[in-house]
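Suppose you are handed a protein chain with no further information: no name, no annotation, nothing but its sequence. What can you learn? This example shows the usual starting point.
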Amino acid sequence: MGDSRLVPLMLGMLWSFGAKAESEIWLRNHTGEVLEIQTTAHAIEQWTPGAKSVRPGEVVTIARFSRKRGHITGDEAAIVARIQPESSEDGIELRTAMRPSLCGTRIESGAGERSSTHLNWNPGDRRFWVVGAQESRLMWGFPFCQGGDERVEFLVEDLGGPAEAPHPKNDGLNVMTYNIWYLLGKPRRGERWKDIPRVVKGNDVVVFTEAFKDKYRDLIVALLKEEYPYMTTVLNGGGAWFNGGVFIASKWPFEGLKQTPSGLYQAEQYLFDGTECSGEDCFAAKGVQYVAIRKNNRTFHIFATHLQSTSPLLRSSERAAAKMLLQTKRVGAWVASKRIPPNQAVLIAGDLNFDANDPGILAKALANLNAAIPKPVGKIRHSLMMTSPESRSKALDHVLYSLSHLAPTEATQETLIPAGLLSDHFPVRAVYAFEETNSDPISVPNPPSPRMHR
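A reasonable first move is to predict its three-dimensional structure. Written in structure tokens, the prediction is:
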């Protein structure tokens, strides 16, 4: 073997020696079921069992273990995790095996009793899909000198998807908000845009956020037209570098809006100015869109927005959180400026970026918006996908209702988990019911021209 071939081998060995030599196995649960976990180890001297269950939408550590060659006591060393739904005895094994290699150990993982990275699993009448992935620390393409720090991650998805929304009465409304993660520079993940219309099917109104990329927004809009013939152009303007990524899709006609040559409708909008944002959010035309829709005999008013991210790259989180709360005041004031009749419903929807799991922040944001949040239903209490077992469970996407306008007789909000890893947010669906009425006069406010900032 020549010197040029020895270099990567030696560097790989040094990399291995410098690693912490502790690897982890994660389990991500994208089903509506609590999954129970039983973990055992064979021929491994140093390992620690992790969580015994994982709730819907969460990710946990199954086990931590040493992959040092001296800690592997046999040729068939393995950690085996048996998982099963809480309501079923039909389980499956997730197996992670370690074997000696030239300068350490190599790792193999899979579902079932073989090293398969994709497997159908049918507990009862459900259709689950198990995906395994291994993250190695490579040195110039040489993975065999690893000593630790690798991660094996298993994902369990429900191919059946979430249950359809209940069919609203004539005076009810189903509204979904979905951050679809089409940020500039973010991975496209293949053709995930094709599955987004399936996820949003069956609602009256859908508010999309982070639809920044024109190409993929146009592709999604083309697929939505049959079910949602009324759609707005993307939030934009004010001299911003990028659009605001927000648009509205509706089954019901917009009141008082003009159709553009593209077939989309130009909504009224308010754009935050440079004093009302922080960090990279200031490069985009962030703000609020407003539409009124007429469903049967009632007018509903929808305000769609994507507020300041509280985890910016360019400025502090403290400053960003303060700007987010400032934006809630601006949105609340703009809603009030429309002078909408109090006997009509007003909803505020989107990626609002305040965490409903933080009571203090929630109270401040709702007070600024003069709004209330629907009752949470379902098993999931966060809408931002957890990146690791240490992630906070943040509920950032909401469909609120105004306290100064028609109150619903019932309002629920549910976070859903679609199959396919389509975004870093889960869609949130709100179901509203109102007292029935024979008619609701068409009364769209006619305020002065909306403020345009930037």
